[in-house]
Specification:
Number of helices: 10
Radius of gyration: 33 Å
Largest sheet: 4 strands, antiparallel
Helix content: 55-70%
Low-confidence stretches: 1-21
Mean pLDDT: 76
Strand order of the largest sheet: 2-3-1-4
Oligomer: single chain
Strand content: 5-15%
Order of helices and strands: HHHEHEHEHEHHHH
Shape: elongated
Number of domains: 2
Structural class: alpha+beta
């Protein structure tokens, strides 16, 4: 009897399922999106936990990125102090200044050239000794040498580049005494390289930690619905048909977590700006502190989406073979 039923059922089973209304890429996409949103509504707590985990993880990474970018901006402004100064024993005429400017500008790495006369040098000296002007009584501008202050391009401020630039500068006729603070430049570049190395190591560690945490959190959400996956497999659903709603769900979770992380970071940034005056001796706004550029914000959102997608994809492998 059982064999007859099985044979009879097999005989009347259609070879192909009937096509659904609106079927096609757009129709399937709508269905998968609907299933993903339904799954989120039916498992609100689990999804809140997942989105909260992604938000916290991306907030930590974006906060580190904000600090690192502002440190890089500060280092950029500090590196402008890497100047090469050429001293002369007499005031330069306009013709001499023009000739030297032309030859110095031709050197690769030159950004700006400024002429400092004896009077300007004395004025700067007095500003540095403000409140102690009596020390300069009787000092005339003739005792200070005129100079050309050369600011280098950002790409030419490394120690070796500065040394090569100075060597080329000394080959120009009329230039003898050149100073650029060799020891300061060396220490400054060493400090910058050390900070970048620490930033890269910490950033890499944070990214790996975030991937691990988010992947395992999403794995728990899918594990809680493992019975649903098994039933769908038993009734003949294809692997893609089973995976698609979960992958879209992961994308939604990742995007929502990234948007929340960006919003919280902006709130922390604004709160810091409004309250920094009570515990800092400088104004962060005038000091050049800035929020993440637009392209970085887009990168964080895309990272959240990719994170949610990859987390869901890797978690599904435990229940559905690739």
């Amino acid at each position: 009897m059982n064999r007859w039923k099985k044979k009879h059922i097999t005989a009347i089973k259609p070879n192909k399922r009937p096509k659904l209304a609106g079927e096609g890429f757009a129709g399937r996409l709508r269905y998968f999106l609907f299933r993903a949103l339904t799954n989120i509504r039916q498992n609100v707590f689990v999804n809140v936990v997942t989105i909260g985990t992604i938000t916290l993880a991306l907030l930590i990474v974006s906060l580190f990125l904000l600090v690192f970018i502002n440190l890089e901006n500060a280092a950029e402004s500090w590196s402008e102090r890497v100047q090469v100064t050429v001293y002369f024993d007499h005031d330069l005429t306009l013709q001499e200044q023009g000739s030297l400017r032309t030859r110095i500008t031709a050197l690769p790495g030159t950004s700006r050239i400024g002429y400092v006369s004896r009077d300007e040098a004395l004025k700067r000296f007095k500003n540095r000794l403000r409140g102690q002007e009596t020390l300069l009584e009787g000092v005339r501008s003739e005792v200070l040498p005129p100079s050309l202050e050369i600011t280098l391009k950002r790409s030419s401020r490394e120690t070796r580049d500065v040394e090569a630039y100075v060597a080329g500068l000394k080959l120009i006729p009329g230039i003898n005494e050149v100073q650029y603070g060799e020891e300061w430049v060396r220490r400054f570049n060493t400090f910058l390289n050390f900070m970048r190395l620490i930033g890269a190591l910490l950033g890499g560690f944070l990214v790996i930690a975030v991937l691990f945490i988010v992947s395992n959190t999403i794995k728990l959400t899918i594990y809680a619905r493992r019975d649903e996956l098994e039933v769908m497999s038993l009734v003949g659903a294809t692997r893609f048909f089973i995976k698609a709603p979960f992958l879209i769900e992961g994308i939604i979770q990742g995007g929502a977590g990234a948007l929340l992380a960006t919003g919280l970071l902006l709130g922390l940034y604004e709160g810091f700006l409004h309250n920094a005056g009570s515990f800092l001796t400088f104004n962060p706004t005038t000091a050049g502190l800035a929020f993440l550029p637009f392209e970085y914000i887009c990168g964080i959102i895309m990272a959240g989406i990719v994170l949610g997608f990859l987390g869901s994809l890797s978690s599904l492998k435990r229940f559905i073979s690739v």
